[in-house]
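User: structure tokens for this one?
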Amino acid sequence: MKQKLPVRLRISDSKRYFSRLRQRSLRVLVLGIILFSVLGNWVARSSIPLSPQSQDSLAISSNQIASVDRVPRRFELGQQLYLENCSACHIALPPPVLPTQTWRQLLQDTQHYGRQLQPIVDPPRILIWNYLQTFSRPLDLKEEQLPFRVDRSRFFKALHPRVEFSQPISVKNCLNCHPSASEYNFRKLTSEWTDSP
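Assistant:
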């Protein structure tokens, strides 16, 4: 014959059972979250290049924009937004032409060379900034002033070492040597510069 346990004993057994079940469920949930986080992080890192120089295969093809630098996919949207916002009024300059600090100021200030512009708001501004910051160089402000004009930028001068300009340097006369600059192609040069040393 089966012996009946007192009701009190059965209730405490069920409490212990559910307590163990909750602990086990909590462990499984925590383990699942950790596993998901690790795998998600691994997938994200493996699909995004870590630097602009890495993975040339992820750079845009040469039949698209022939910019000075190859642009990995993670910066393409920033570049596209930069071109949409800047080339509507003037030739969009490649980021290496001006220092990083100049680009920061230009993005933050709605006064743009005497014109009042609509401010670029986040998130597009962040994407543009990531693109410009990655492909420009910082300037040591202890030694020189921050240039806001191309002709005052030593980076522009370094990119044009043997060029003697017959006209004052401005964004407008980039087309004199870079006929496709309006399409953001600064690699294509006029015939006089194509074979120059």
